[in-house]
Design brief:
Blueprint: H1 18-31, H2 36-43, H3 45-53, E1 57-62, E2 65-70, H4 72-79, H5 88-104, E3 107-108, E4 129-133, E5 136-142, H6 151-167, E6 172-176, H7 183-188, E7 193-197
Parallel strand pairs: 5-6, 6-7
Antiparallel strand pairs: 1-2, 3-4, 4-5
Helix pairs in contact: 1-4, 2-3
Region (Disordered): 206-225
Biased composition (Polar residues): 208-225
Length: 225
């Protein structure tokens, strides 16, 4: 006697408006995570609370303060699938860099701008992007997770890029949440590297931390910027 095969259980797709889908897509692909004020400005406080309650969004406490990111049900609503995801670590690093740049008044160089020089194309595979900063035009990255770049990480980076950076008069800049970690090693490579301490303060939130998440690494689909 054979057993009847049953179709796998599938989660019902949460209902969201086209405007909400646009906001959640931007959150996942571009912003990484939102502050409380950002979430309220995009969704309205009542709808934001509903999405937290329904587990479309989750709260993560960080050194910056609490931020809010897309959970599996949110990905299901926005993209029609929740099977795979970019790591939470990646999303938090993206939010850290974005919020730090906003506070510092820095910006990435638009690739359609006549001022874009294509420096980032010299180093495919690296997560550095050409940016306009108070240090001039640089190749910029930032990392919140793990306390920022380690000494070993700085050494690996410099072995890979330093000779090209010096020959083309390029400066790599890394934003880090810790004032001391890696600074001595960065001084050794100061001709090509600056390690800038900055920790944005996003402020507290009035909402409960009911959906705390662990930062796990998975295969990203779709791929955030």
């Amino acid at each position: 006697m054979t057993r009847e095969k049953r179709p796998p259980n599938r989660q019902p797709v949460p209902l969201i408006t086209p405007g909400e889908k646009q906001h959640l897509t931007k959150l996942y692909m571009d912003d990484g995570a939102w502050t409380y004020s950002e979430a309220v400005s995009f969704l309205g406080e009542a709808r934001f609370r509903e999405m937290l309650q329904d587990r479309l969004l989750g709260r993560q406490d960080t050194e910056m303060g609490p931020v809010y990111h897309l959970l599996a049900r949110g990905r299901l609503a926005a993209f029609g699938t929740a099977d795979e995801a970019a790591s939470l670590t990646r999303q938090l690093d993206l939010a850290y860099l974005r919020l730090s740049m906003a506070e510092l008044g820095w910006r990435f160089t638009d690739k359609t701008s006549p001022f874009y020089r294509g420096f980032d194309k010299l180093f495919p595979g690296l997560k550095f992007r050409e940016a306009e900063t108070t240090l001039g035009r640089v190749l910029l990255a930032g990392k919140l997770s793990g306390g920022g770049y380690s000494v070993d990480g700085i050494e690996r980076l410099m072995r890979q890029v330093k000779s090209t950076a010096l020959s083309r008069n390029l400066l790599f800049v890394i934003l880090t949440p810790h004032a001391r970690r890696g600074q001595q090693r960065a001084q050794v490579h100061s001709s090509a590297l600056r390690l800038i301490h900055h920790l944005p303060r996003v402020g507290g939130a009035t909402l409960p931390a009911s959906t705390r998440c662990q930062a796990t690494r998975q295969t990203p689909t779709p791929t955030p910027s």
